[in-house]
Records
---
Amino acid sequence: MKFYIETFGCQMNEHDSEKMSHLLRINGFTPTKEVKDADLVIVNTCSIREKAEQKFYSLLGRFKKLKDKKGIILGVTGCIAQQEKEALKERLPFIDFALGPSGIHTVIDAVTSSRDGRFFYNFSENGCVAPLFLRPEPARGSIKAYVTIMKGCNNFCSYCIVPYVRGREASRESGDILEEIENLARKGIKEVILLGQNVNSYNKGRDDLSFPALLEEINEIHGIERIRFVTSHPKDLSDELIGCFGMLDKLCEQIHLPFQSGSDRILELMNRGYTVSEYMDKIDRLRSACSDIAITADCIVGFPGEDEQAFKETVELVKNVELDGIFSFAYSKRKNTAAANLDGEVPKDVALKRLQHLQGIQKAITLKKNQAAEGRVFDVLVEGRSKNSKDELTGRTRHNRIVNFRGDTDMIGKIVNVKVIRGYANSLKGEIA
Ligand code: SAH
Ligand code: SF4
Ligand code: F3S
C-alpha cells in the first residue's frame, strides 16, 4: 500500500508527519511523492490562522474527488482534527479517520480500522504523551533532524489556538532525548533542531536536566556539529540560556524570539507576560553574550484594539531592534480563544495595509543585513542541490541564512567555507573560499 502525507503548519507538524511516516514504513507501507499513486492519503493540518484552515478544506475537496475515483483511504490528523473532533466527520463525511496531535501514534490502528470500513478517531487530550516517544528513522542521506523535547503550551496567549489543540506542557526525559540524538549522530545526522512550543519551560518543576543543561549534554555528542531550537518565549528566556550562546561551540548563533507587538497595551491584551522594554532588554543581553547572534521573530498586526498609535509603536520596535527576519501575520480570530471576545476589531483591509507596510520595512532591514555579509566567509553545512539551479548547492550558515553556491555534490553533508558574493532579500550567493 502506498501512502502520501500532505503537511500544513509548523515544525512540530512536519515532525509529526515524519513520525507517522516512520510508523507506516515499518509496518510495510511505501511512501510516494505523487498523491495520484497513493492508496492512503493523510492530511496533517494546522489551525493557527483562518487561511491555513481554508487551504485544508479546499484541498480536501480535491482529495474527495480522488477518493470517489479510486477509493483511497483518507485520514485527517493534526490541529484541525483536534479542534473539530467528531464534528469533522459531520462536515467531511467521506473521511476515514481523524487523529489529533496526541493521537498520531495510533495511525496504524486508524488505517486497519478504515480498511474494515469503520471510522476511527483519537482525540486523546492533554495527558497523552505517546507521540513524544516515537523516534522516526532519518531518511537516508539526511543531514539534519528534528527532535521533540516537549509538547504542548501553558501560556494561553489570548489569540492562540495551540494550547487548545496541543494540550498542556509535558517534557520528555533527558536520557531518552540524548539517546535518540546519539543514535541520530551514528546515522550521519550533523544538525539537530530541538522542538517545543516553549523550550525554556523544558523540565520545569521536574527533577531532571534544565534546558541549558540539556544543551550542554548534547554539545558533547560526537558527530553532532550543530544545535538549534525553537521556540523561546521572551518571558521565560533565562540568563543561563542566553549564556549558552557563544559558550557551547555547537549551539548555532541564532534564536527565534517572537515579540508579537511593539505596544505594551496590546502585549497585555495578548497575555504575553512582558513589556516592550523587557523584550528589548533580552535582545541586549543576547547581543552582549554573542555579538553577531542572528535573531528572528514573529509579529501579529491588527490585533483587536490596535489603533494607529499602537501600530506605530510596533513599527518603531521593528526599526529599532533591526532583527534578521520577522514573520508577520494579520490577526486571525480563533474560536474559543480569549481574544475572540475582545472589542476593537481592526477591519481586514486596515490590518493588511499595516502588514504590508511592516513587511516592507523589515525587508529592507533583512536585505541590508544580508548585503553586509558580502565579502565575509562562513561555515556552511551543505544540505543538497539548490532548487533553483542544477549546478548549485544549497546550505545554511550557523546564523541560519541560506547560501547557494557552485560546488561538487560530494560536499553534501559537510561543512565548507563559503565566501558571500551577494546578499539578497531571502538568501545569499556565495563561492567556495
Ligand atoms: N510557540 C510559538 C508560536 C507558535 S504559532 C511561540 O510562542 O513563539 C506561530 C506564530 O503564529 C505566533 O508566534 C504568532 O505570531 C502567530 N499566530 C498565532 N496565533 C495567531 C492568530 N490567531 N492570528 C495571527 N497570527 C497568529
Ligand atoms: Fe501560542 Fe503563546 Fe503558546 Fe506560542 S506561547 S504556542 S503563541 S499560546
Ligand atoms: Fe503548529 Fe499550526 Fe498546530 S502552527 S501547533 S500545526 S495549529
---
Amino acid sequence: MGGDDIERQAEKIAQLIINSQRCLVFSGAGISTESGIPDFRGEDGIWTKLDPEDFTIQRFVARPEVRKMQWKLLAEGGLTKNVQPNAAHYAVAEMHKLGKLDCVVTQNIDNLHQMAGVPDDKVFELHGNMQYVRCLSCRKRFPMEEIVARLASEELPECESCNGILKPDAVYFGEMLPQAVLSEASRRANLCDLCIVIGSTLVVYPAAYIPEYACNAGAKIVIINIGYTPMDSKAAVRVEGKAGEVMGRVMNHVRGIIDK
Ligand code: NAD
C-alpha cells in the first residue's frame, strides 16, 4: 500500500472517528512492535527465542527451574525493559483527550496504553499486565518492581503472606482470562459504533471475539495491521501499514477536521 493510499485511508478513518459516539480500540502485539517489543508470530517473534511450553500454567507450577529461568529473565529487565509508548499509543491517548474514545481493549501486557495517557479505567487488559505479580494461592497482587528488587538476594521469590508461588500477572497458556474484564469488554463491544483494530492477527480467542461482537452488533470496523486477518472482508476501512505511522496520520486529519 503506497503513501497516498494510506493518506486517503487515514482521512476516512478520521471521519469515522469524528462521527462516532462510542469508539472501542482493540489492540494486539503489533501496536507495540514500534516500541521495540517483539510480537509472538512475526519474523523476530517472541517464540523464536523462548519456548511457549514454559509459559503454560502447568509447567510454570510444576517446575521450579522454569520459574527460576523466568525470574532471571525478569531480573535482567524482561522483554519490556525501558520501553516507551510509540505514536500509535499516543494517538489513542489523544482520542481519549478529545472525548473520542470509549475504551481500549488490549491483548497486551506491556502497560503502554496507560503510559501514553489513557486512564486505567478505560483500559481492559484481557491478558493481564506484567507490571504486577500475583500469588497463585492467596491471589494477593504485588508491584513487579517490588518482587524484582528481591531477586538481588532470592532466586525463587515466594509470597510474603502465605509462601505461595508467585507468578507475573499475565495470563499464561491454560489459564482463564480475567472474567470480569472479559465481560465488561464484551458489553462495551456490543455497544460501540466503531471498533478500530490495531496490530492483531485476530486469531487468539476469546480475545478475538471482541471485534466480532462489535461487528455483529452493527459497529463499523477499521483494521490497521501488517498482514491478513480473518475479519478483513468485514472492515469498512482496512489499512496495510505500520500502526504508529497510520495512527499519526489519522490524528492529523482528526485535528484538521476539529479545527475547521
Ligand atoms: P500476534 O503476534 O499474533 O500478531 C501481531 C500482528 O501485528 C501481526 O499480524 C503482525 O504482522 C502485526 N504487526 C506487527 N508490527 C506491526 C506494526 N508496527 N503495525 C501494524 N501491525 C503490526 O499478536 P496478537 O494478535 O496481539 O495476539 C497474540 C498474543 O500476543 C496476545 O495474547 C498478547 O497477549 C501477546 N503478546 C503481547 C505483547 C505485548 O504486550 N506487547 C507482545 C507479544 C505478544
